[in-house]
Amino acid sequence: MAQKPEEIISYFSSLPTLSTIEIPADKLIHAFEGNKRFPESLLQKFISVNKKSLSFLGIDASISQIGYKLKLILSTSRFTGSAPLISPADGKKFSDFNVTGRYGEELGELLSLIDDSITPEYSESLTLFTNSSHKPPIYIECCKFLDKYLEARRFRWTKFDSEMRIQRHPNGGTLWDKYAVDTATDPFSKLSFPNRCNILEVNHIEWQQINYVLGIAISHLELYKTPVKARLSYLDKISFLKRILMDSPKRKTNVLQGRMSDPKVIKELKEIGNLILNSETNLKLAWRVDYADFFEKYVQYLVSAVAKRKGGTFYPNIHFPIVGKKPKWGLAYLEPDMVLKRGDSKVIIDAKYKSHMYNWNDYSDDLKDSFRHDLHQIMAYSSFVNTGEKSILLIYPFSSFVQHRMTAQSPLDSTVVNITLVGIPISKKEVVNVEAKLSELIKL
User: Fold this and answer.
1) C-alpha to C-alpha distance for 207 and 419, rounded to whole angstroms
2) Confidence (pLDDT) at 2
3) How would you classify the pairing of strands 121-127 and 285-290?
4) What is the mean pLDDT of residues 276-290?
5) Which helix (H) or strand (E) holds 320?
6) Angle at 89 between CA 84 and CA 95, to 5 degrees
7) What is the CATH number of domain 290-441?
8) Residue 174 DSSP code
9) 30 with 2: CB under 8 angstroms?
10) What is the pLDDT of residues 302-346, one digit of tens each?
């Protein structure tokens, strides 16, 4: 490339969520040594070769032209993550797309904070160019082990096992010391020779060790942490292999010893098996996290802590069923992000990963329509609170903790809805402070 890789990589290494990035065509042409006379061709090829990665990360790519100036427009969605970046010049990976949180938050430390309530989604068809801080879960290796085990089983890997057998004639492996002791104590055993025999065996020691690892792999796949999609897709294989294991000898081991003489399929099976034994993975898979879902779970974590402080009950994603005659497109239920309840007091809370708090003093029709939708939605949820005065919270990301109170009052009766718009920082070091301020704000 004519341009240093760092100069072009910087455009794609930190793409914020819910944002639009413009990259001048001449920068890409210079970097990939494209034809200046046909800039649109290079941009179209860039979009084409990176189609899978762009789709996986929810990035919309288009070409904009103003006068003679062409630009590549990348519009990110609510997904954050990484996927391989492919050069339109030679079709090879040379870096990765990296979509980050819009507000500078550190996803890794926050994912560990909210435990297993949300996990990254991985693509088995897209591998990263660089190492990622997000290691794929071990269940992916377990799925691979099951597939490879079935392939190896069809191969019928046999090895010589040495075992002692009593035979009528001696051979080169006769255990004469044992024979002497046996005949001295029992003269009638003179025609019984303890011979060491090399038997070509399918269930040899190494296969027994592989069976042991198979049991571990199946156990991992049956854990509740394993995504339902993976469990369901391997349900038949797991059932079949569990029946095989019931009648198969197993031998505990800490490592599957690789040998130069091993067939290719066995070498691959042992490599995956050792990763499982070490609970590691060597994959560099593309990954993504739905940031709207992540922000919701982050707020749920904070509000659940408030519920414990106040002795209230916390209901995340509770369903209010809708029954009766409905069209095909009708809703089955309403689902607020969270409800806090203590005695007769209830607070409805919705978390929205939107920039409303950052645009407090701005005006646009898009902002107004988006907020109208948020407000109408949570007001609908509040209809299930059977009191004259209702409390609802709309929580958005912000650089610090802020709150703005407003009231909606019915002209028909005494119904009052107290609405609080809250901005919170998405930061692990701010968690204790945000919990305390939310506790002061929420009246139960």
Assistant:
1) 65
2) 45
3) antiparallel
4) 85
5) strand 320-321
6) 25
7) 3.40.1350
8) B
9) yes
10) 999 999 998 889 998 888 888 888 888 888 888 888 999 888 888
Give the 3-state secondary structure of residue 371.
Answer: helix
The alpha carbon dihedral of 437, 440, 442, 444 has a sign of positive
Mean pLDDT within 382-395? 82
Q: Collapsing DSSP states into helix, strand and coil, what is residue 279?
A: coil
Q: Could you tell me the maximum CA-CA distance found in the chain, to the nearest angstrom?
A: 112
Yes or no: say if 428 and 106 are a contact pair by the CB < 8 Å rule. yes
The whole model's pTM is what? 0.68
* Nearest to 142, CA basis, from 287, 280, 248: 280
The pLDDT > 70 percentage for the chain reads 93
| Beta-bridge partner residues of 165 | 195
Total residue count of the chain as it appears in this document: 444
Q: Identify the band that residue 1 occupies on the pLDDT scale cut at 50, 70 and 90.
A: very low
DSSP strand pairing (320-321 vs 333-334):
antiparallel
Q: How far is CA 64 from CA 18, 69, 360, in A?
A: 19, 8, 30
164: left (phi over 0), alpha (psi -120 to 50) or beta: beta
Relative to beta strand 416-424, strand 389-397 is parallel
Contact of 95 with 9, CB cutoff 8 Å: yes
H/E stretch holding 353? none
The residue assigned the tokens 């019984």 is: 192
285's enclosing H/E stretch is: strand 285-290
Residues 6+ apart with CB under 8 A from 282: 275
Six-digit token pair at 167?
A: 């035979």
**Two tokens at 247?**
């009648």
Q: Comparing C-alpha atoms, which of 49, 122, 53 is closest to residue 84? A: 53
Q: 152: how many CB neighbours lie within 10 A of its CB? A: 19
Tell me which amino acid residue 347 is.
Answer: V
| pLDDT above 90: residue 270 | yes
Q: Which element (helix H / strand E) includes 271?
A: helix 264-277
The amino acid sitting at 224 is Y
**β-strand partners of 174:** 195
Distance CA 424, CA 305 (A): 15
Helices (H), 15-138: 25-32, 39-49, 51-56, 107-113
Q: Does residue 249 contact residue 272 with C-beta atoms inside 8 Å? A: no
Q: What is the pLDDT of residue 209?
A: 94
> Token pair 């198969």 is at which residue?
248
Three-class SS of residue 67?
coil
Question: Could you give the CA distance from residue 267 to residue 108 in angstroms, rounded to a whole number?
Answer: 34
